[in-house]
Amino acid sequence: MESGIIEINYGQSDFIPVIAICFYDEDTGVDYILDTIILGEFSPTKESYVIGEFDLSRIKNNTEADTVMKLLIEKAKEIEIQVVAKAKEFAQEISERAGIPVEVIPRLQGKPEVYTEFDHNMWQASHILEGIDEDY
Asked: Is the pLDDT of residue 133 over 70?
């Protein structure tokens, strides 16, 4: 390993939007997830993650998805400075331990991934029909 890059990307974990801090090994082309930050808060009463009034696992349609996307972007902007600082800490630690230069891309890349109930249902169908229907 000669050098690396730390990127900050939007992603998802079990259909829940997250920000992922990733290390990319430039020599091997391998990505490593160093940390994830969930965009949303856990609601004990709903037993799922929410943002604003929206349950992130039960977004009904594209109109709700657009609203949720805006809320997620606002939330990400609120915490971006802390996330970049955390990425820089990872870079320093990797650089010290491995003795390699590590560049941090100091901005959030991509856009939040928002899934509607339709998307969840299609995902479940694809797993059920895998191997039965050639389209899946």
From this structure: no
